[in-house]
Amino acid sequence: MDVYRTDEEQVEALKKWWQENGMSAVIGLVVGLGAIFGWRMWQEQQLLQVEAASEMYQQMVIAVRDDNDPDQAQKTAEQIHNNYESTVYAVFAKLLLAKLAVDAQDLESATVHLRWSLDNNQDESLQHPIRLRLARILLARDKSDAASNIIDIKQTGQFGAAYDELRGDIKHHDGDIEAARIAYQQALTKTLASRNDISVLEIKLDGLGRIDFQ
């Protein structure tokens, strides 16, 4: 049995529903479409920003690698930082600036660039390399306490050996030979397990004397 017995009743019911709900339905539709198109526009805008930042970063690399023009690289990096700070290329630009600063023996500027990179990086694969690089620069500046604090983390992933080796360097710098020897030995054990090159670690250990853990 039909809910409405005649076409006229169906039309009247539709008119009544529209009077009661039509405006809210239109508003809901507009809001929904606005959200969809707004999200798409935001995604497109983000993609355009990434593409523009990528192109500028390539220009920066060329300025360093091919043109040997660190001043131009610096200018391009500033543009990336000012206009595309939220992209990963801002981090890449800062890392390249840090390298240029190290090459120029400007370790203080390198520290600034690396700290910014560490604080603003969202790419998990870059976290450990940035952290380790920053700690090495701090150690080179005789700031062993700051370097030690930077690498004082529990989750080191596949970089465990690198962290242990750097801890050994810090302890050696501070004159704690026993702690340095232990850290180097731990790094050597992890490096052997990963089948990576152990020559540098062996040189460091030979200079301090090895420990037999057996």
Question: Can you give a write-up of this model?
Answer:
The protein has 214 residues and is mostly helical. It has two domains: 1-90; 123-214, Serine Threonine Protein Phosphatase 5, Tetratricopeptide repeat (Alpha Horseshoe). The protein has helices spanning 7-65, 70-83, 88-103, 107-120, 124-140, 144-150, 160-173, 177-194, 199-208.
Task: Set down the secondary structure blueprint.
Layout: H1 7-65, H2 70-83, H3 88-103, H4 107-120, H5 124-140, H6 144-150, H7 160-173, H8 177-194, H9 199-208
Average residue-wise pLDDT? 83
Task: State the helicity in percent bands.
Answer: over 70%
CATH class annotation of the largest domain: Mainly Alpha
Characterize the largest beta sheet: strand count, sense, and whether it forms a barrel: none
- Fold-level CATH name of the largest domain: Serine Threonine Protein Phosphatase 5, Tetratricopeptide repeat
Overall, the morphology is elongated
Q: What percent strand?
A: under 5%
Integer tally of domains: 2
Q: How widely separated are the two ends?
A: 89 Å
Number of DSSP E strands: 0
Give the structural class: mainly alpha
Report the radius of gyration as a whole number of Å: 30 Å
